[in-house]
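Hi, here's the filled form for the chain we discussed.

Project: internal
Contact: R.S.
Residues: 457
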Amino acid sequence: MATSAPPDTIVPAKPSSPEVLARLFPGLRPPPSVLAPARIPNNGPDALAALLNALRDNHERSHVFFNQFSFHNHSAHHLLAIYALGAPGPVITAAYENTHLDHQRIAFVAPNSVVINDENFTDHLGNDQNYNAYLDYFHRVVLQPGATIPDLIEKYIFSDYYNIRTPKEGTQQPEMLNRFLEILLHPIIHVGYGAEFGLLGMIAEGLAWTAVHPAGATTLISRLLFTPERITPLTELEKQGGLNWMPKSGARLRALNILSLMLRDPRFFGSRVLDKHEFAAMLESHGEIFNKYAEMWDCNIENQEDLEKYLEEIVFADMLMYGVGSWDGDGAEYRADFFTCALFLPSLCAHISRRSQTLLLRAHFLTSITWWVVRGRPPFPLKEFTSTPLPAYPTTLLVTGRPGFVMQSLSNDGVEVDPNYAYLDGSGERNTGVWNYQEFEQKAYDDLAMLEAQGKA
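And the returned structure, exactly as it came back:
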């Protein structure tokens, strides 16, 4: 999806007062849950000041996208990731100034000086030219007396009113949970950092990001979670026969069982990686098929034990799809395609109700299996993957728990490190000890053996 071009006449956004910035980025809170990623100490006394200075400058200076192709501003993600990995102050400052500032699009006033309020909230959704108008709106919201991160996320991401309104109000449905996972899940990462570090400024930015993202997956998340009564006819793909190995309607399965079934499904695209322009068409043609698979997952969270069970399940399903599935054999470059947003699920879940936890994990799983198919639906060569020595990439931590590549780089200069390496290093190093990888590996083998015995894998 290409964003609209900036306005012909750019009016720089009005800067916030130092008092407002201090309230938006006052300091950092501890992790909100024992399941949230740990932070590595030894940052040094200047690290927090350097981090907050950079976050405040980025908040004022930069737009959500830095070009017309919807490439996101990763500055805050990068800086928070390396701070959590123990980066000292000079490294944080250098990372911001040398990695990000030369290509960001400046923040600008929305065309026609649009002001977002409760009444016109839906009228300007999905248009990135209105980013700063939504950011100003969420400034007012997060700084209201008594505003809390749980209340903000519950209202603007998970409430029925900010997803599907009946009757419809305004020019379009809000579909905020849908937008929350759009364009490779960047809004959930941004709000996730806000939830993890307790930063209202990141929450405001992330909600504004969400508002200007498209609702392209309407056939998926909103249909699955908010409009369960089907209103579209059966597609020809759904009518195809020869799928007698599929479970009966209403079956409830674990995530790994579902992935095994999807590997067999001939209605997808073999192992072909789809082009970006094919994504929207695929949602139209295959959306209901994805929904059928997502409906099979037995995720329903009623207590803390349920939450831990399903979090573990989705973390390892993502690891299979985007960690193991990214491995192309010994000697090939190891990509470890997108799966780092699972890192933020525990922090988000720590702030929301059981109902919203269920919605979040189900939406995340649905999005994950969709992008897995877009990326070519790679298989899971577990035996080969776990028996092959891995190169010294940060992603090795996801399986081995070895010392982090990024931290070794930080001890040198820490500036030229790809920001995505920092996220991947954090996914492994900061989650070490939370999940039992050996137990998961055995579960994976057990599930695959069961499906093989049933002729379904």
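Let me know if anything looks off before we file it.
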